[in-house]
Recover the amino acids of this structure.
């Protein structure tokens, strides 16, 4: 599903954020990316969505060679990838329902798909009763569930999460992890960058550890450190 | 495209939100566009009007033979006889010194101090001559035949005036063209800036749209539509203003004796419609250009 061949990313000719990384992530895997701050986790995720392009090496995502992809095809690549962030990136003037529906509307999905898919996904994340609320009326955990609903409503092949529990208390973080686990069980590949040792140790999934842009450890049922 | 059409509701809603958010900027942009394209419209009408007027004169130009103020009655009659019998001359009209003074009085109605300097005796009587043909060259050579006659002070054909007016109009057209270009550019820049502000105000939405895979054209379209709408609104305001001004000016020409000269400067209704349409289209083009540049400039994958 995701393959890197000797990928290097250098920012502005100096910072080596990713340094000669090769790895292979299969369909349906759940992968933790760990490493100290500045080790290149976020950069790696942005390489997957073609927000950044590799300075050297090859990136394949969802069957596409991102070193050759035309900028016109990038949006179609992103329809196969859901993204979740630490700061949720919800639109404050839209309700929960509208925030999720927005993701379908702006890729031109027909109305009947929107009206069936949005309630279904809100039900999945357990927020049906909050669909008319605005983001600032929700707890952090609820906001993150909305953002996961938005990322997943188009049933992407891959879900990327960059420190999704970073702003949440441990109990709420557990809820989010249960949700991501459920999504992973539908066959969706999940890649999650995190600093949360408890979660990584408890889930016992594949762990890829980075340091200064290099892979220093890659274990199938790994732990945080 | 089909997909875009299906999302019309979305585009209309987003465009309306954008416009409402920047009302003052919106008004400024619309007015600038309006003034710019109004000049384009007026310039176009002036161009039509001058072409019409020049064409008309070329077809019916006459010349005037001015006589020495102290010419004798016999000489006047002899010249008159010769002109009347000339095969190339259709008809003539004798203008006495008194009539010449009256004409001058009419022309200088607002400048009495100038009129006071002119005495009746210093004005030349004249023959107005309408030739049988209208070609400027032929009129010119016909007129030349009378230049050296005894008692003739000067012969003036309309040609010099027509040439002078044509020249004047040519430079006028250039000035109007230049001003319209400058104003159109200013309008486009203003719209460019407005769309930039609108895009900045909606950067979170744009970020999310990119994130979930909206195409660039889909993201841009509401902004380009907004710019075109401003252009359209400005174009309509400009066209209405140009129309009102045109009526006003024509009325002025019709009423005022001083401006009677300009009565030939009229545009046909189809020319008027063309000018108005061009004005509105110009507005839309300016709006589309400004916003398309902004949307292209501030939106990369
Ligand atoms: N847009 C950018 N321009 C220049 N340098 C950047 C940019 N983004 C990241 N970097 C640099 O690249 C390196 C890796 O950053 P990255 O954000 O990928 O780390 P990270 O592992 O996600 O860190 P954190 O855990 O703090 O989120 C850092 O040295 C950072 O300063
Ligand atoms: Mg990061």
């Amino acid at each position: 599903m995701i393959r890197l061949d000797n990928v290097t990313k250098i920012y502005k000719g100096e910072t080596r954020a990713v340094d000669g990384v090769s790895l292979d992530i299969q369909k349906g895997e759940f992968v933790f990316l760990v490493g100290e701050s500045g080790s290149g986790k976020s950069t790696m995720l942005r390489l997957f969505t073609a927000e950044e392009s590799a300075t050297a090496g090859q990136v394949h995502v969802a069957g596409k060679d991102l070193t050759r992809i035309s900028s016109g095809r990038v949006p179609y690549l992103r329809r196969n990838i859901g993204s979740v962030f630490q700061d949720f990136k919800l639109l404050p003037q839209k309700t929960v329902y509208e925030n999720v529906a927005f993701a379908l509307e702006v890729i031109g999905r027909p109305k009947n798909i929107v009206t069936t898919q949005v309630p279904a996904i809100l039900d999945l994340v357990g927020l049906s009763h909050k669909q008319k609320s605005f983001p600032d009326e929700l707890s952090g955990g609820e906001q993150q569930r909305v953002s996961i609903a938005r990322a997943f409503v188009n049933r992407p092949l891959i879900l990327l999460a960059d420190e999704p529990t970073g702003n949440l208390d441990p109990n709420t973080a557990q809820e989010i992890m249960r949700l991501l686990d459920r999504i992973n069980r539908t066959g969706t590949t999940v890649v999650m960058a995190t600093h949360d040792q408890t979660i990584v140790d408890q889930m016992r999934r594949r762990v890829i550890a980075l340091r200064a842009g290099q892979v220093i450890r890659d274990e199938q049922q790994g732990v945080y450190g | 495209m089909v997909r875009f059409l299906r999302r019309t509701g979305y585009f209309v809603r987003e465009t309306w939100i954008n416009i409402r958010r920047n009302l003052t900027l919106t008004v400024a942009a619309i007015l600038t566009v309006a003034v710019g394209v109004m000049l384009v419209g007026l310039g176009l009408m002036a161009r039509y009007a001058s072409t019409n007027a020049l064409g008309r004169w070329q077809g019916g130009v006459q010349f005037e033979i001015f006589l020495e103020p102290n010419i004798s009655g016999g000489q006047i009659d002899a010249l008159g006889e010769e002109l009347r019998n000339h095969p190339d001359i259709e008809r003539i009209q004798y203008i006495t010194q008194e009539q010449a003074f009256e004409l001058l009085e009419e022309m200088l109605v607002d400048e009495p101090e100038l009129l006071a300097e002119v005495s009746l005796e210093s004005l030349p009587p004249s023959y107005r001559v309408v030739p049988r043909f209208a070609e400027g060259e032929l009129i010119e050579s016909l007129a030349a035949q009378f230049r050296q006659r005894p008692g003739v002070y000067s012969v003036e054909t309309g040609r010099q005036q027509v040439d002078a007016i044509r020249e004047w109009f040519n430079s006028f057209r250039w000035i109007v063209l230049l001003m319209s270009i400058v104003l159109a550019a200013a309008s486009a820049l203003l719209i460019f800036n407005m769309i930039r502000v609108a895009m900045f105000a909606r950067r979170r939405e744009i970020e999310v749209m990119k994130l979930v895979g909206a195409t660039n054209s889909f993201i841009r379209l509401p902004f380009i539509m907004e710019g075109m709408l401003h252009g359209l609104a400005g174009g309509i305001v400009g066209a209405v203003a140009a129309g009102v001004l045109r009526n006003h000016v024509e009325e002025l020409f019709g009423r005022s004796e001083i401006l009677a000269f300009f009565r030939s400067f009229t545009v046909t209704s189809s020319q008027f419609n063309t000018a108005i349409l061009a004005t509105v289209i110009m507005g839309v083009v300016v709006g589309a250009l400004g916003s398309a540049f902004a949307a292209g400039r501030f939106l990369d994958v």
Observations:
- The two ends of chain B are 20 Å apart (CA to CA).
